[in-house]
Fold this protein.
Amino acid sequence: MTLPLSPDELLSTTRSVRKRLDLDRPVPFELIRECIEVALQAPSGGNRQTWHWIVVTDEAKRAAIGEYYARSYGAYRSERASRPVQSGRVAAQARVASSSDHLAEVMGRVPVLTIAAIEAPELPEGNQAGLWGSLLPAAWSYALAARARGLGTAWTTLHLPYEHEVADLLGVPAHVRQGVLLPTAYFTGETFRPAPREGVDSVLHHDSW
């Protein structure tokens, strides 16, 4: 069963869920399979479909990934603290920082950790849009499919400084590169609403900049 969401509602209310991930409610593996089946309909360069999905539910492996994530997040948090805060976004950035801190603390306890990866014996030099453009739309489709099934996800790449260690932990071959980590769980509370964004006219360029 999926939630009765219109396409626009699904697209505008799929949020990064951090504090509201339900750490105690098991997620049926069949639901994750359904999300990946939807994701496999996404476009890929040349329709090659060289993506792979590593779904981690083993408690010890989730805990180990959580430790790598927390280690990487600690370095990121220190760097973030040195950045100037954008004018008018102090409260919003504080909320994001607080929820990010929480996710780093509990990552290893999230019921399902899904890693989207792609075959890439060598990363291309220069522009890598073609490579990652063949994976990331599918990963976002996974997040949308999860939202439609009452699950929350968070899009993060902060584990990637330890990509090789995570690959060793999970037996991922060297020619498969990880692109994004999607912690997945039921969410607490009611539902989600569209987030405040800059007006379209501040970012829309018609025919020229």
Observations:
- Residues 19-82+93-185 form a domain with the NADH Oxidase fold (CATH 3.40.109.10).
- The radius of gyration is 18 Å.
- The longest strand covers residues 176-186.
